[in-house]
Amino acid sequence: MSREADAADQGDGERVRELVSALRPADVADLMGFLTADYRREILPHVPPDELAELLSELETNIREEVLESLEPATLAKALEALDSDDAADVLDDLDEHRRQSVLAALPAVDRSAIEASLAYDDGTAGRLMQREVVYAPQFWTVGQVIDHMGRGAEELPELFFEVYVVDPAMRPVGGAPVSSLLRVKHETPLSELMEAVTEIPVDMDQEEVAYIFDKYHLISAPVVDAGGRLVGQITVDDVIGVVQEESQEDMLALANVSDAGRDATTGEIVRSRLPWLVLNLATETVAVSAIAVYQDEIARIVALAVLMPIISSLGGNAGTQTLAVAVRALASRELNASNTARIIGRELAAGLLTGVSLALVLGLAVFTFYHDYKLALTAGLALVADIFVAAVGGIVAPLLLERVGRDPAVSSSIIVTFLTDLCGFFAVLAIAALILL
Amino acid sequence: MSREADAADQGDGERVRELVSALRPADVADLMGFLTADYRREILPHVPPDELAELLSELETNIREEVLESLEPATLAKALEALDSDDAADVLDDLDEHRRQSVLAALPAVDRSAIEASLAYDDGTAGRLMQREVVYAPQFWTVGQVIDHMGRGAEELPELFFEVYVVDPAMRPVGGAPVSSLLRVKHETPLSELMEAVTEIPVDMDQEEVAYIFDKYHLISAPVVDAGGRLVGQITVDDVIGVVQEESQEDMLALANVSDAGRDATTGEIVRSRLPWLVLNLATETVAVSAIAVYQDEIARIVALAVLMPIISSLGGNAGTQTLAVAVRALASRELNASNTARIIGRELAAGLLTGVSLALVLGLAVFTFYHDYKLALTAGLALVADIFVAAVGGIVAPLLLERVGRDPAVSSSIIVTFLTDLCGFFAVLAIAALILL
I need a surface site. Which of A205, A248, B86, B127 has the fewest CB within 10 A? Predict the structure, then answer.
């Protein structure tokens, strides 16, 4: 890293170019992330135009914005020509409207219209994920005809492709032939002989659904079709891998009630991304502790209750989080669905009861050993069983209900479950204590 | 679903075969998951041998074990022949030693040795993920020679492939030619002209690292090399997509201190997968509340403290979980690394302080409004600042330390952070109260 920075420091352009060209675009993007903005500005002019394009699509969003600001529209247009339409649209999406129009104007008409079409689809849909560059052929062609056709039209072909889609006269996909199968047969072989079924992706499908289908059927590429079933592009698996990772990580962050402010976020941005949830947490917790306020007299008389409450609400909260994480994962991978909901809920409640009783025996024994008071031990045990059962109910029902009403089951479900287990943890201890101890 | 089950019920084999063959292996596997073991046994004989192989590699582990039990070694061997060596090894790995040997004995020698070689690698390594079937050619060959060669050796070729690896005389990869590029050029073109750099994967590389490299460089396939740098197989992106999902979801479950017992786990298995962490949680929480036991007299005098403690420890715990989730994600995607550790820690601590002060103002005001006691409000505010700062320290330092000592940063870090924030939450309230209130 430091060699590149040193070379840039001394204005040694030739050396920077040499070092940068020895790296792959993803590595140069990493390098840019480690450098300060000043160094980035020094290095940028030394990146060759064709590598600049790939570098742009690899950069993190906030660095990309900074780099895009510093480039001339013409330079940028030149770089974007080298990208597939999905990657080019991704880069352009970060520009403000005015600069986007200047860059689009500097592009050749064919690239411009492909990118504009891509930008017209919503972020997070198959249309945005797909590239318009695709190889297709009519059903009656032979392998030789396909190969000849590709030799002629090399300009508009995708950079890499894995399947030749077979279409009917209305451009509707009827199948696909893997590229490796074309290589194995004679030129006279009709394409229809190699044809396999393809999984069509509607252009407005959510990217999470696309990722699920790719993973389930082990797809390498799939044709994207419009509302009329006509082939409009293709999605390749390398575009999907990022979606899979993003979606799984989003669930993790959502369960922790936080959004990722990004590697280069300022302290203020971090605080803004976290504070709202903590304020909500403060509000729900205030409601939960009102159970304690109601029973202040009991606590003043038996201070041991103040010691037991946090133990019980903490165990309840953790048991709820466990159930929740498993449920969110199962919903995301479609293992939990309409066909088995009732069975899974039943199983979770049984597991909650069994876990609660097991832990209650341990806790009850510990309390009795320490306080020599079997009523207090009984209070602790019963409250724990109740709280862990509430945790099981909340942990499985909250995400299912959120999913049912069309919300993301990972978002806000942990706030609900923690509220329930805290409220019940405090209330159960104190109410049971009021019944049997006082 | 129910039509298939009904048909099986009536012993209507022909109808079952028809329905099953209309589905893809991944869908049949899903169907099997929805059925009871009895129905599965009815359906199994109607699955054609070549589809049985793919079905086996799609089934969930516990159903696969049950299905494998019910198959004759010869039937199983016949099915496995149709699979690539990585998928076949995956299936065989689930058999006990005795049955595995009978199935291996029933396989042709070439398949047997490929599968045995695959099983020799550790689970979770590149060697286990790779398939031995690979297309390679010497550097001096032309495209035509490669194509002719493939036509002759079609038997040993992988089912699908995306790259022809170019090797030196010692079988060390020197590059690769994408299959789609072979189709675009004349037969006389030397392979060396199409050759691009490849990313070699050492056979003992961890699968998480493999997934990272595939994602970073957008790879579709990559050659796997042994310790001597010789080509021994290849990994394709469809094998990696499952790893990416698995690793991200594992982090989520690990943060929630739970392992997934699987869709068909019994209640007992679920309890066993969750109880150990809850018992540990009970132990740490008992230590944390000992802070409360020490200050029992203070609580008896000012019961409001028992109301404040859970609010503060809950907010601290949630702030810690937020920091932790972001840190675990950043570590997993290598955004957090040696080059920026100091900066990120500094930023998290600053964010923790700012968040703590903001929340403390809200809480302090609320406490004053409710109790009309500015000393109590000050106690609450100071304790909250302290606890959220401890949360920030724990949330960023715990995963970094675990990573530094070679442990998974997602596993057990939330237990550490919750322990710290609970302990500090209780202790800070009571110690500060003892200082300024009493």
Answer: A205
Distances (CA, A) of A54 to A50, A82, B338: 7, 8, 26
> Residue type for A187, please?
H
- The rounded distance, in Å, linking the Cα atoms of A130 and B59 is 30
Q: Is residue B54 very low, low, confident or very high in pLDDT (cuts 50, 70, 90)? A: confident
pLDDT digits (tens, 9 = 90+) for B8-43: 555 566 777 777 777 888 888 888 877 777 878 878
> Given B147, B256, B300, which is nearest A322 (Cβ)?
B256
Contacts of A251 in chain B (CB under 8 A): 249, 252
d(C-alpha A38, C-alpha A15), whole Å: 18
CB contact under 8 A, B162 and A347: no
pLDDT digits (tens, 9 = 90+) for A45-97: 888 777 888 888 888 777 888 888 888 888 888 888 888 788 888 888 878 88
Residue (of B331, B318, B432) closest to B378 by Cα position: B432
pLDDT tens for B372-409 read: 999 999 999 999 999 999 999 999 999 999 999 988 88
What gap in Å lies between CA A290 and CA A423, rounded to an integer? 9
Q: Which B residues 307-366 touch A at CB under 8 Å?
A: 307-311, 313-315, 318-319, 321-326, 328-330, 332-333, 335-336, 339-340, 347-348, 350-351, 354-355, 358-359, 362-363, 366
CA distances (Å), origin A9, targets A17, A132, A324: 13, 42, 52
A178 φ, ψ to 5°? -60, 140
Mean pLDDT per 10-residue segment, chain A (438 residues): 52 72 82 78 79 82 80 84 82 83 86 85 90 90 86 66 92 92 86 91 93 88 95 91 83 86 80 88 87 83 88 93 91 81 91 94 93 93 96 95 90 90 91 86
| Contacts (Cβ under 8 Å, ≥6 apart) of A250 | A410
DSSP A177: E
User: B306 and chain A: CB distance < 8 Å anywhere?
Assistant: yes
Mean pLDDT, residues B341-358 taken together: 92
pLDDT at B1: 45
Identify whether the C-beta of residue B328 lies closer than 8 Å to the C-beta of residue B252: no
CA angle, A27 as apex, A23 and A29 as ends, to 5°?
A: 120
- Does this complex have an ipTM over 0.90? no
**Burial (0-12, 13-18, 19+ Cβ within 10 Å), B372:** exposed
**Which of B164, B235, B314 to substitute to test the interface with A, most A CBs within 10 Å?**
B314
Q: Compute the distance between CA of residue A213 and CA of residue A206 in angstroms, rounded to an integer.
A: 11
Dihedral angle over CA of A264, A267, A271, A273, nearest 10 = -10
Q: Measuring CA to CA, how many Å separate A375 from each of A381, A438, B90, B143, B184? A: 10, 10, 55, 85, 83
Crossing angle of helices A61-69/A49-58, nearest 10°?
140
- How confident is the model at residue B267, as a pLDDT? 86
Give residues with Cβ within 8 angstroms of B173, minimum separation 6. B136, B165, B166, B167, B198, B200, B223, B225, B231
Question: Average pLDDT of B196-210?
Answer: 93
Interface test with B, best of A55, A216, A292, A318 (most B CBs within 10 A): A318
- CA–CA dist A286, B54 (Å, integer): 55
List the domains of chain A with CATH numbers.
Answer: 2-120 (1.25.60.10), 136-255 (3.10.580.10), 267-436 (1.10.357.20)
The owner of tokens 């068909």 is B264
Contact B329 A249 (CB under 8 A): yes
According to DSSP, residue A302 is labeled: -
Q: How far is CA B8 from CA B14, B19, B20, B69, in A?
A: 10, 10, 11, 20
